[in-house]
User: Fold this.
Amino acid sequence: MLSGLEKQPFDPNLLVGFDKADDAGVYRLRDDLALVQTLDFFTPIVDDPFDYGRIAALNSINDVWAMGGTPVTAMAITCFPKKGVDFSILSLIMRGGLSILTENKVALVGGHSVDNEQIMFGYSVTGVIDPNNVATNAGAQPGDVIILTKPIGTGVISTGIKHAKAGAEVVAESIATMLTPGKYAAEAIGKFSVRAATDVTGFALLGHAWELACASGVTIEIDSGRVPLIKGALELAAAGLLTSGDKTNREYVGAEVEIASKADPNLVKLFYDPQTAGGLLLSTSEEKAKDLLAELCRYYPRAEIIGRVIERGEKAIVVK
Assistant:
């Protein structure tokens, strides 16, 4: 779809645009200051409207953190029906989102609402960053290791919630995972000079790993046995409680992924599972990996080294 757009005039201050499918855009204002801009909104994935608002806020802010930036302002985006749903629900959603913005010192400066049968909510977020220290998805180098900061499985669990198939403990762990902010990872990106970073959201683990590999011109090998999973997610995947994103994400990466025949097919389903407010994929040198992982585990106890970067081969992603 984007290939049909006219090519933009070259702008030397546009440091990160849409051409690399990165998490956010970065525009330089001066030598030591750049804007980070992103936008995200989605339909409800949990039953509690307050939690939905909180998750939507963190999901949007995470894109700024994924670039190593600091979020500053946010504008709300709301789709809500004029009839049929009590407006107190929208109030709870907005309050939940504002609680997360306030907690992370992000100022709500306005927003826009549309009458729509399907509820949707999210934010457009603006942050700041040193233009000399932007973490993009194009910096992975052969010899690096790949770290994932959070376990995966929020997509199948949200489907399980809709079908009343997800237990209370499973739901609680999923919500807690989504509500763990990416700001600590952003701080680690700067502290350890992480070479490349991206967050794992709608395109799933394999989709975002594929974008990282393609932007960096490398192949990423993933050790399937080391990928952390949210409790209960594997069982829900085995029961077929998948989102529509499972099919579209498989189409997205296409033949660019090689999966070992011995890999558990239900586990592979989770690798295509769309995530909300997911963790970050970080590519860092092997010599820094141990200390970086120790730092991350202070805030993300399930953080794990899940793979490595090698020279570009026939496939962009290899799952072992």
Summary: The two ends are 32 Å apart (CA to CA).
